[in-house]
Amino acid sequence: MRKIFCLSLVFLLAFVACNVDKQIEENVKKLKSTEVKERTRAAGKLMQLGAQAEGAVPALRETLQDPDWQVRNAVVYAIFRIGGEEANAALKEVLPVYIRALRSENPATRLFAIEGIGYFGPVGLKAVPEVLSVMETSGKLYDQLKTENPELAKYHYWISNQAKYTLQKLKGFTEKR
Question: Considering the entire predicted model, what is its pTM?
Fold first, then answer.
């Protein structure tokens, strides 16, 4: 009876491993989809697999060049959750792009960049001075614009609040050291 149980367990583990490999392969293909939602979902599914999806890091790294911020942020979070040396190298490589985006004239770009930096984990700590600066600037701009341009003021309010949230997330990594 014990032999049957052990054999069953071996077959089950082999099936699960094959299923994970299949999920990784399918989602790596979906990273090249023309649909933003499908690329974002694929990154999210790889993120859920965590370290098991380490083989997907090269494809995720390529996807860091995606034209859509939502996809790039999902990819950054997936890479962070997968972890490992290659993942950390990819995050270190792309962080300067996010830091430059904090200086964009487009407030939506700054908002997505602030959000994304929160997904970098400990690598994102290098961006703290820039995040603090953006938070302060956006807070001041919100106060100035809330009566004369409420639509633009909203973006600065969101940026300032997202910066506070991002700083809280990054603070957790300084406490774990």
Answer: 0.78
